[in-house]
Amino acid sequence: MGKELKTNAMRFLDKNKIDYEIKVYQCDEFIDGITVANALGQPLEETFKTLVAKGKSGNYYCFLIPVALELDLKKAAKSVEEKSVELIHVKDINKITGYVRGGCTPIGMKKQFMTVVHNSAENLPLFYISGGRIGTQIRLSPQKLISAIRGKFNNIILIQGE
User: Fold this and answer.
1) pLDDT reported for residue 137
2) What pTM, to 2 d.p., does this model score?
C-alpha cells in the first residue's frame, strides 16, 4: 500500500510492528457500523465501533464495543475511574481526535486517550476496528492493540434489564 493511502492508524501499527489486514469498502457517506459489517461480511460480534467520551474530570476516553451493542455510560465511567462520562458531540470528533465520524479509531489520534475495549474481544484472536478513514477497516489482534496503546478490557456494554 502506498504511503499516501496509509492512515495514521496504519502508520502506528507499522511502527509498533503489529500485523493487520486492511478491508476496504465503497462508502460515500458513513451510515453505521452494522451496515459496514454486513457489507464486508464481518460478524457483528467481531466488528467494533469507537466511541469517544469526556469524563467529569475533563479527560477524554475511547471505548470500543461491538457495533450492534450500546455503551453503558455508568460502567464506562467506572472503568476509567470517573464519576461520569458523556459521549462527545459528533461535531467535535474531528477537533478532539483528528478523525471524522465513521473513521474514528483509538490509534493514531492527535493524542492517545485511555482506551477501554469491551471484554468480549479479550478471547477473540482478531477483530475489526475502523482503519482511520471512512471506507477502511483494520483486522488485528485485540490483545496486541491493548498492549500497544496501554488500554484495558472491561465490561462496558448496556445490558437490557440491568
Assistant:
1) 94
2) 0.93
